[in-house]
Amino acid sequence: MTTPTIFPPGSDAEPRGPDSSGGAGPAASPPPSEPTLALPVAGTPPATFSSAPPPSPPSQPTHRRRWWFVALAAGLAVVLALVGWMVWRNWVPSAPGAPTSQTITATSVQLSWSPSTSGPSVDQYLIQRNGTQVGSVDAGVTSFVDNTVTPDTSYRYVVIGASGGKRSAPSAEVVVRTLPATPADLTVSLSGATSLTIGWSPAQSIAPEQYVISRDGAEVGSVPGAQTSYVDVGLTPATAYGYVVVAVSGAGRSEPSAELFAETLPAPPTGLRASSVTPDAVTLQWSAPTAGPPSDGYAVVRDGTEIRTVPASTLSYTDRRLTPATTYAYTVLTIKAGVRSDPPAALKVKTRTPPVSSAHLAGSWPVNGKVTKVSGGVTLGGSAAKGQTFEWTWDFASKCTVGPCPAVVSGVFASHPFTVTVSPSNGTYKGSTKVHVSHCEGLSGTVDVKNTIRLNLTVTKAALESNIWSVTSWKGTLTVASPYTAAGSSGNLRSYCPASTVTTSVTATK
């Protein structure tokens, strides 16, 4: 048997009756002063009494509002996640600081910059030149050296921070101009007592605007960039100098060239003159240089060939064994530490023309002869008559190579050869010999006569032949003397030839 339960009035568990529409409607609450009585049922625990009302079931509008808030929270979470993703996606390193050029040469540029300060960590820095990447460095490095540049050229650099695949904005741009190429291969192309000419190799890339030349640390001049030499004047003789050359374009100056050390030549002596001139010698005199340190000595040069050196204390020299009537060019050079001065203007000296009497007689000569006098009866293989002419060739074998000296003459007279030695004296050569030339006709027939031949030759002209003062013309006489000659007898008859002479003038010219 079921025991009915009595609910307290106003309890949510109180059964509700149907409303006017046929549904369950709210039940009328008992008077509040009446307690709820639960009657016990046999076999069941006794009922309990409570003054707290039981929970009410949720109403329909409250449930819908809760689901709307859940949906709004979920949508907001999606939006926030999407925004976060987009923010993360566009979260890049901050741009590095503007690069600065620390060291610039003709072939390299060294850059440095401050690191990125915000955004994701940088993995590396990328270096761009004129819009093209030329290198990269790790995140901990904030400098870079570009060794692929050209001298005297402008470049634009920026630095970009990289984090994985993300790139920062480029840094501020820096414009750098490399230095002009350093001049190289300095040489001395010409040196003098008071000047030096310096040369160098031209630039292999872009020619600079100018070259600046420094001597011993001080600038002394400049030349346009198309010129690669410089003449430094007003220097001291026999003095060493150090030169460097710098290429300049605008405000850019190249590194100095390697230093070139060059020395000026000694100053030449002054007042060169010929104090004595003979046919075969010249005596020179000069004065010591007036500038530069004292000399170590002097070199005498004749016709471009150095012929003698003398110490510094000697200011003269005699040049011997010269050719007569010949012009020579002399210079004297100063010697300092083995270096010779530039030759001054040459002094031209002509040796004296010697007298013809000092000429050398030698060689083969064409000789013309003419009988000028006949005394007595002479038969020269025929009659000898005044005015008779001859043409011979005589040879003179000199017993020396230069100057006058004895000579052996081999000649012919009236078809008879002869040899006679002639000796010189003041331009005249004389000599005699005995040789058969004429005949004596008598009772015993023809008798050969032993004649005496005398030569008397005088030099009339002389000139240089193969640099030897030589006889070029002579004249004289050839005398053939015949002694008294017996030509046989018959009884009281005797035949003879009286003494006689034939004088012939002779001349010869080469």
TrEMBL record:
One of its GO terms (biological process) is polysaccharide catabolic process. SUPFAM superfamilies: Fibronectin type III. Residues 95-181, 182-267, 268-356 form the Fibronectin type-III domain. Gene3D superfamilies: Immunoglobulins. GO terms for molecular function: hydrolase activity, acting on glycosyl bonds. Keywords: Carbohydrate metabolism, Glycosidase, Hydrolase, Membrane, Polysaccharide degradation, Repeat, Transmembrane, Transmembrane helix. The chain crosses the membrane at residues 67-88. Residues 35-51 have a biased composition (Low complexity). Residues 1-62 are annotated as: Disordered. Signal peptide: none annotated. PANTHER family: FIBRONECTIN TYPE-III DOMAIN-CONTAINING PROTEIN, TENASCIN. This is Fibronectin type 3 domain-containing protein. The lineage of its organism: Bacteria, Bacillati, Actinomycetota, Actinomycetes, Micrococcales.
